């Protein structure tokens, strides 16, 4: 089934050079790749509390957004742009880091809880519910990766080398699926993205 096309893609992260390479900024990484592919560039839009890149999909306008409000106020930026351009929640895709998925895993879903993610929590509050799409990029959890770090410290540090490679591969798969995602061909994308590369590698001994 074809859903509504996506008009707003939001990458979650924290502004500032000290956060650029941290796990919590995975959402920024992907929307920057997509903006580049679409031939668009980000510019600070103070009225939307973020950096915005405008593009078109099949002749229709669409926007990419990097909130500059820090993670726990992401909803302020998302709701400001969505209200101004009259974009419905089901036409919004939020790209974010996911502790409950291992590096290399990706899941696409609509709605659901925020699982303690401060960015998602604030967006749900600002939009009045969870009815937007989410592209969940696995970063792993410190316990699943055998680390003793607290979660807050973990997400604000760069991934280790092997984790970074797996995340890069996941981002590449999302990049390949960009056109289908923007067109709203979500069921097909799910079938492609949800194949678990971690399990496949373990099964083949890779």
Automatic annotation (TrEMBL):
InterPro entries: Pept_tRNA_hydro (IPR001328), Pept_tRNA_hydro_CS (IPR018171), Pept_tRNA_hydro_sf (IPR036416). GO terms for cellular component: cytoplasm. Gene3D superfamilies: Peptidyl-tRNA hydrolase. The record marks 14 as: Discriminates between blocked and unblocked aminoacyl-tRNA. The record marks 97 as: Stabilizes the basic form of H active site to accept a proton. It is found in: Cytoplasm. GO terms for molecular function: peptidyl-tRNA hydrolase activity; tRNA binding. TRNA binds at residues 19, 70, 72, 118. It comes from the Bacteria. It catalyses: an N-acyl-L-alpha-aminoacyl-tRNA + H2O = an N-acyl-L-amino acid + a tRNA + H(+). The keyword RNA-binding applies. Keywords: Cytoplasm, Hydrolase, RNA-binding, tRNA-binding. The active site is at 24 (proton acceptor). Transmembrane segments: none annotated. One of its GO terms (biological process) is rescue of stalled ribosome. Its EC number is 3.1.1.29. Pfam families: Pept_tRNA_hydro. Catalyzes the release of premature peptidyl moieties from peptidyl-tRNA molecules trapped in stalled 50S ribosomal subunits, and thus maintains levels of free tRNAs and 50S ribosomes. Monomer. Belongs to the PTH family. This is Peptidyl-tRNA hydrolase. The gene is pth.
